[in-house]
Amino acid sequence: xxxxxxxxxxxxxxxxxxxxxxxxxxxxxxxxxxxxxxxxxxxxxxxxxxxxxxxxxxxxxxxxxxxxxxxxxxxxx
Length: 77
What we know:
The chain is an alpha+beta fold. It has helices at 21-30, 62-65; strands at 10-17, 37-42, 49-53, 56-60, 68-72. Residues 1-72 form the Ferrous iron transporter FeoA-like domain.
């Protein structure tokens, strides 16, 4: 599934990032890499979604979120 499909207050593990190399490098610099955990804070509105990863809160455009493949994380892991 893609991050864009993620539900609010759910944590996911990044499986792959399918963006341009420049954008992928920028996301890596922010700490969003394959295998990292990302929690969707708010995905209810039509604008950018809000997510938390590496202890910081970010707004991600839906086009970017659509290019990030994630898997659900069991809350007891």
